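Tip: read the tokens left to right.
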């Protein structure tokens, strides 16, 4: 029987320790925390993404806990550690977390930097595809949808058109962070249960659901907001003179919004916005 010398025996023991420890660490990395949850705004934004798909005759996708968790980690990393500096774009990850850091940019093509993050960080064993956007300090779901709706590349990704036409999204996830919003899609189902809503927002969700039972969604093409009725009426007169015959005002707590038209679905509102003449291109879409 062969006998190991002391230094080789030490190396052998270290190797065994690594074999035993690394799988346990990897497994720990893949577990989604039990207290992980989504906010009302995140649920509503995901519903709006699915509504865009439905408006373009695409099936809605399932909300994925795994992809939402990756999105949550990424927006936190972007805000706290700023890996999106110099030539690195917002798909980059810092070296400040339990993940593989990488600098994602158009000069060095490394799509695995993004694609493998769900597999690296969650039980989702397939590739993920991310859209992540930086916003200013004041943004909400309406402004997110408006900015994304103005981008052909974003719409192509959401509805699998153009360079994404060979993809078939089955699930998706998102997170709204400070200054960043991350949206992910995957082509395979997530084995995890759908994410839960954060407990402190459950009561608000129930109230909103009751309020909306008999109220269909409407989408307004908003062009201005005014503090006094006289300025609002003058803007309304100009809009109607420019052939926006359906233009009118919305009064909310003595703040007046001018809308050029209203629509029953987001697709029609987006199309109408794209057809606006130049001096009305700053209009945005409000869902009521």
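Filled-in amino acids:
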């Amino acid at each position: 029987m062969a006998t190991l010398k002391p230094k080789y025996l030490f190396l052998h023991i270290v190797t065994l320790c690594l074999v035993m420890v690394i799988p346990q660490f990897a497994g720990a990395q893949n577990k989604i925390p039990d207290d992980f949850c989504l906010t009302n705004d995140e649920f509503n934004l995901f519903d709006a993404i699915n509504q865009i798909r439905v408006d373009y005759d695409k099936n809605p996708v399932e909300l994925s806990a795994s992809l939402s968790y990756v999105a949550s980690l990424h927006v936190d990393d972007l805000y706290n550690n700023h890996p999106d500096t110099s030539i690195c774009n917002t798909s980059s990850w810092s070296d400040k977390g339990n993940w593989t850091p990488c600098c994602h940019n158009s000069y060095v093509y490394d799509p695995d930097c993004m694609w493998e993050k769900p597999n690296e960080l969650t039980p989702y064993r397939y590739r993920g595809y991310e859209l992540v956007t930086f916003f200013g300090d004041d943004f909400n779901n309406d402004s997110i949808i408006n900015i994304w709706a103005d981008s052909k590349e974003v719409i192509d990704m959401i509805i699998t058109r153009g360079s994404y036409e060979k993809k078939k999204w089955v699930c998706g996830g998102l997170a709204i962070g400070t200054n960043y919003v991350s949206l992910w899609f995957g082509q395979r189902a997530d084995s995890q249960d759908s994410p839960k809503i954060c407990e402190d927002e459950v009561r608000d969700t129930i109230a909103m659901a009751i309020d909306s039972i008999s109220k269909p969604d409407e989408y307004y093409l908003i062009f201005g907001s005014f503090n006094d009725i006289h300025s609002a009426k003058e803007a309304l007169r100009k809009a109607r003179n420019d052939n926006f015959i359906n233009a009118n005002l919305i009064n909310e707590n003595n703040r007046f919004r001018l809308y050029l038209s209203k629509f029953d679905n987001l697709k029609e509102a987006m199309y109408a916005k794209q057809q606006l003449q130049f001096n009305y291109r700053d209009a945005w879409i409000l869902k009521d």
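Strands lie at 37-38, 62-63, 129-134, 171-176, 180-186, 196-197, 219-226, 248-252, 255-263, 284-287. The two ends are 80 Å apart (CA to CA).
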